[in-house]
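Side project, low priority. Logging it here so it doesn't get lost.
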Amino acid sequence: MTTARRGVLTGGTWCVDYNRSVSHWPGEDGLAELLEEERHGGGSGCNLALDIKRLDPAMPVETITLVGDDDDGRYLQALAEEAGIDVRQMAVSNRAATQFCDAYVSLQSHRRTHIFHAGVGAYLTPDHFDFTATHARFLHLGLPGVHKTLDAPWHDLPNGWVAVLTKARAAGLKTNLELASVDRDLMAQLTAPCLPHLDFLVVNDMEIGAIAGMETIRDDRTDREACERAAHIALERGAMQVVAVHCPAFAIAVSRHGKTVTLPSVAIPREEVLGANGAGDAFAAGMLYGLHEDWAVEDCLALAHAAAAASLRSISTTGSVVSWQECLALARQWGYRPL
């Protein structure tokens, strides 16, 4: 008897975020005031795992990652265990320190600036990923560009990301890849060979432009039509069933069967916003949760926007995400921006 797959397995980046709220982001040789500082878990594997658990505590969540044998590594282990995340494949290494990131959020612009140290993340390899015992339905994998070994060729494959995705799909999981804010050319180079091994792709407006090799942002404004064209290009180059593109103003989802849905973002009151750190992860969590539950694409987008808006109320990546029902209630209360 085959057990039906359910749950989300996150793989890749778990790091410690030192979230710092500053008056503004200064230029070189400039000065800004540090207003608030907190330590939280961060990275795609951590953020999406915690967000899914906040959206639905009953959803099974597992993770595969590598942390250091240090205080930060033990902090991440405790964080995951407290949230009810399966940490059997959270490996511990003494080769380097736990990966960490200084995450600055400007109160003036609400934009974020990340400065990271790769640490033990550089030693994460496809061999750390064992899919033989998991009953998860989805794999959420990241982040290309910040894991040295996974970024490099692996045996006869273009990179380690392809190796992990190939192994996951062979084991019966559906796959999604999260990207990092690295150089556009590097992003395109690492992502291109992964596209044929993905079931979903949830990215922002800059990332979809890098993947498609076109400009999607002009004069600091996102070009909605360009994002849609870029999403179609990515769809044609890969195996994805859905490509979703998000930005602060709207999101677009393009399906392989031809359906395109555009939805404006939630009009969260400005006084509620503390920082955008983790909003993209929250969007992905809402989108993947809906897809996991076989919701209509427009309902997935609505939850994605609602989760992202809820996340803006904290300078941490996951601190203010609430249940999916509460997220949608907040969205109804605040309404949506005009397209």
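Brief comment: The two ends are 49 Å apart (CA to CA).
Revisit when time allows.
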